[in-house]
Write a structure and sequence with these properties.
The chain has about 450 residues and is mostly beta strands. About 15% of the residues lie in helices and about 40% in strands. The chain has a 7-stranded antiparallel beta sheet with strand order 8-7-4-5-6-10-9. Strands 25, 26, 27, 28, 29, 30 and 31 form a 7-stranded antiparallel beta sheet that branches. It has a 6-stranded antiparallel β-barrel with strand order 11-12-13-16-15-14.
Amino acid sequence: MKKLLGILGVAFLGGAVALGGYKLLLEDNQTIVRVQEEDSVPVVRTSYTNPIMNTSSMPTNFTEAAESTVHAVVHVKNTAIRTQQDPMSFFFGGRGTRQYEQVGTGSGVIISPDGYIVTNNHVIEGAKDIEITLNNRKKYKASLIGADKNRDIALLKIDAGKDLPNIPFGNSDNIKIGEWVLAVGNPYNLTSTVTAGIVSAKGRDLEGNRNIESFIQTDAAVNPGNSGGALVNTRGELIGINTAISSRTGSFIGYSFAVPSNIAKKIIDDLLEFGSVQEAILGIGVDSSDEELEGVKIGSMEEGSEALRAGLKEGDVIVKVNDVKIAKFSDLKGQLTAKRPGEYVAVTVKRDGEDLIKKVKLSKRVTFRAYRFGLELKDMTAKELKKLGIDGGAKITKSNNKVFEYYNVGAGYVITQINAVKITSASQAAEILENYTGKQRMSVQLMNPSGQTEVYRF
């Protein structure tokens, strides 16, 4: 049975864009996302800069760290095809739109001698052509190996021999507040720029409750074009990928934020080995009612979860994962993001005034949310696939979508195709739905609990 819907607005399309309303503005061929909220600290994705410091108190080994890293940071040029309204074309029988090339720039970090490069996803998103310029001015075409939009990390590859300068990964868990760091990148197309600052804070959450990450906050100077560049310690080790700045103007005014290297490395390893990110979970629900609590309180336990088997209980307060202190949820999220399903972690909890340590095996995340569509999706089990006679799909477990609810589409339905693309996992379906803007047509094919196919067009 097929049901065709006309072009309809998807419920909750305006759902929670991080940090308040965003506005796109083009500055020097670079796309900047700027927060309009006046009562909160705005965050701009792309770059950073740092205040004047007393140079007499600086460590003397900055030159060594700079020399060992500056040649491994590259300039990234992204050429994308955009479409815009062109009212004049109606007079000549056109369709009212025109296509044009948009060029954006950023930075990247060579992480292997054979040419693998890590950068931010927003630096290369939508690119039809990616050009890498090395510090010696040589240019190469890059191929996209994979990307993780949620954590804003992308992996590129160039063919430029097997002896490229590269930066080794450091352990971002070991950095301390007040520690000196260097930001290396290409702000405003000024290549080979190195700035210094200190780690101002750890475990920063910049995007509310949707994509919580444990960002490193520094006061090292970063500006548009620095995105995707290196944050290194004084030993020249990569401890973060510069990603965003705090700004009301689009330029650096004091603080910058970087994805920790442990998270970036884990994402890269997953992309290389699996082609997608493997998300690890404890199998708990969080009780965030007490804002003054230091730690993460367990509010619920998933039935049959590894956390339950390990002896964790509702009401326990998680204060450590391995040897890393957990003061808030972003700390816990950061630790889990840097680990894979199947790994064991030592979880320290406070229970009735005592500290207990439980060894927990991390599980694979199987539930994903498509916020724009108001859907919660999960991966299909082998038994479910066999019962329906299909080899892939994403099962709806919850729905707040008014359009779907009108047609009684909800829990138990399985998304099998979106725009004729076969759906193999919940994460794939959630990503495609999240990218829907309402400006383009979308066809969603589902299988109802009775095994019949239904098609909805938005």
